[in-house]
Amino acid sequence: MASFAFLLGAVTGSFLNVCIYRLPLDQSVITPRSRCMACSAPVAWFDNLPILSWFLLRGRCRSCGASYSIRYPLVELATALLSLFLFLRFGPSPSYLIYFVLAAALVVITFIDLDHQIIPDEISLPGIGIGFLASFFLPEPGWISSLLGAVIGWGSLALVFYGYLWLTGREGMG
Q1: Cβ within 8 Å of residue 34, ≥6 positions away
Q2: Which of 40, 49, 123, 153 could cross-link with 53 by S-S, CB 3.0 to 4.6 Å?
C-alpha cells in the first residue's frame, strides 16, 4: 500500500506541474496535452512517466533535444514523498486523502508564488473551504481551531495589506 501512495503522489505531482505552469497563464489544466515549450511537439504518454521519464530522456525533449527543467521531477518526487509520509502517518483513511489534497494545493501555491509572486484564488479559496469542512470530520484540528486559524490568518494578511497601503499609498499585495 505504501508503494501505491508513493506512485499516486508521483502521478499527482505530474499534474501539479501542469497546474504550476498553466494556472498563472489562465490556460486549461486539462487540454491540450503536455508539449515541449521549445518545439511544441506533444509529449508522448511513455515520455510522461513521473520522475522516471525525465531521467530516461536525460532532461531533454525527444523531438528537439531542448532541456526540460529539473523542477519537473523534483515536484513529482516531493509530491510522492508527501503522499508516502501522509500515508505512513494516517494509513488508508479519509484523513490521508484530505491532508494529501491540501498538501498538493500547497505545492502548487508554493511554486506559483516563487515564479510569479501570486497565490491563485483557484487554489487558495477551495483550499480554505476544504480545510474548514474537513475540520468537522477529522480528529485534529477541530472546527473551532480551524475557524480561529482562518480568522487570524485573514486578519494578519489584511493588517499587512492595509498597513503597507497606509504607509506607502500603494498596494503591496494582491
Answers
A1: 18, 42, 43, 48
A2: 49
